[in-house]
Specification:
This protein is α/β, with parallel strands linked by helices. It contains 11 helices and 10 strands. Helix 1 runs parallel beside helix 2.
């Protein structure tokens, strides 16, 4: 089945990879479905955060290699992951289990990765004779550093959860599924409670700075938009009145 999508009353959207019998491997139809969901999320100012997860015991086994040759759009996977990274709303990868192949980059494109004890990561590109696509390599180097990227790509070895936390692939490691749900819910609630104009603007600015592609004038424009926003006035008033703010995203 293609990924399932839902949005809760608090504005937190959830996308769940839904092929548990095949370890949630991604087929072309799944990538097209994900792209469609990402396009809708990018155009909709209402959702406050996105949780990406999988069903069953593995987060995702990566791309279906049977569809690798003869594809009419060989960059479909790269485009899908890039669309996830470019989403204006913050994203959380709820890693319910191990992550393999291209799925390692799918999770890396999210703003946070929460893992569970016992999971592992393996990037087998070198074992397959595959040179990974450029934007995936960029994500690995910019987010994990050159040493960790070389280790994961060139050695193609399995790396356990504790080591993934140490090298920065995981932001948080929890003991079990209940703790995973609790930590993801905690992060999502924090994100949903903050001013969306500021959150979206600073996410874009931070990502641009990390890539070395930022335009100071554009960052100043975002700063000015927030300074003139109703959300800032509401946030200051709520702080003074010692109450929770009610942000509208404008």
């Amino acid at each position: 089945m293609t990924p399932t999508f839902s949005i809760a009353d608090d504005g937190v959207a959830t996308l769940c990879l839904n092929r548990p019998r095949h370890l949630n491997r991604l087929h072309r139809e799944d990538l097209l479905a994900l792209l469609g969901h990402f396009e809708r999320l990018a155009a909709d100012p209402a959702p406050r955060a996105l949780v990406l997860t999988g069903s069953g015991r593995v987060f995702c086994a990566g791309f279906n290699l049977d569809e690798l040759e003869g594809a009419s759009d060989p960059r479909l996977f790269e485009r899908t992951v890039d669309a996830l990274e470019a989403l204006p709303l913050p994203t959380i990868a709820r890693l319910n289990g191990s992550v393999y192949g291209g799925a390692t980059d799918l999770a890396l494109a999210c703003d946070w990765r929460i893992g569970v004890a016992g999971m592992e990561l393996r990037m087998p590109a070198a074992r397959l004779g595959l040179h990974y696509y450029p934007n995936g390599l960029r994500r690995y180097v910019s987010r994990l550093g050159l040493g960790a990227a070389k280790r994961l790509f060139l050695l193609a070895e399995s790396v356990g959860a504790d080591e993934l936390l140490r090298i920065g692939y995981l932001d948080t490691l929890v003991a079990d599924a209940a703790a995973l749900d609790a930590e993801v819910a905690r992060l999502a609630a924090l994100l949903a409670a903050n001013a969306p104009l500021a959150v979206r603007g600073m996410k874009a600015s931070l990502d641009e700075i990390a890539r070395g592609e930022f335009d100071p004038a554009l960052l100043r424009t975002r700063e000015a938009e927030c300074a003139a926003s109703a959300d800032l006035r509401e946030g200051v008033a709520a702080f003074a009145e010692r109450r929770a703010p009610r942000f509208a995203g404008r």
